[in-house]
Amino acid sequence: MQQALIFDMDGTLFQTDQILELSLEDTFNHLRSLNLWNSVTPIEKYRQIMGVPLPKVWEALLPEYSMEVREKTDAFFQERLIDNINNGNGALYPNVKEIFAYLKENNYSIYIASNGLTNYLSAIVKYYQLDNWVTETFSIQQIQSLNKSELVKTILKKFEIIDGAVIGDRLSDINAAKDNNLMAIGCRFDFSQEDELKQADLVIDDLIQLKTVFPKTNGILSS
Questions:
Q1: Angle made by CA atoms 79, 85, 91, in degrees to the nearest 5
Q2: How crowded is residue 40: how many other Cβ atoms within 10 Å of its Cβ?
Q3: Residue 152 to residue 179: CA distance in whole angstroms
Q4: pTM
């Protein structure tokens, strides 16, 4: 049976930090222009919570602001992210396309499960033509609970998957794997945290290492 590999997007496939600072600075400049912010842009605080759904991001970055302000800020931020993607200011991590091509050639099915919103994910997939290899991309927007474990469960149910792995850089990815009885592969990349990675079944420093985990066979997981 074909194995399913479910990848996180931000901090795993896409180097979000390359557009993060630009987009966040644009957003807080916008808030300053509205006289709603008069301090430095909280980039470091965002880095610490990177990987959580955006509504929770704005709860953390704008805790004393109304829901209306948070929602408008979120919409502006999303626009800036997408503009920066389409302007080529972002980048995939090294070897993304190479490992995707390898996995596809060796009968592994590829999915993306992300806390990013649908339009944002679509912009990345389209710009980098990831749909050449990816069966389908799933956004946390599709799950009312905003729980990544439930998002992965949705993928498993839709495609009748019983075996595979979740590859990501944060604890939400690791938990999504374990909660669904899949292998948890942690990525020691920009936003990862060592205490979280310790809970993964396996940790990699480069996506190309997946070649040693998923061999040139009929798509059976290596153990």
A1: 145
A2: 9
A3: 9
A4: 0.87
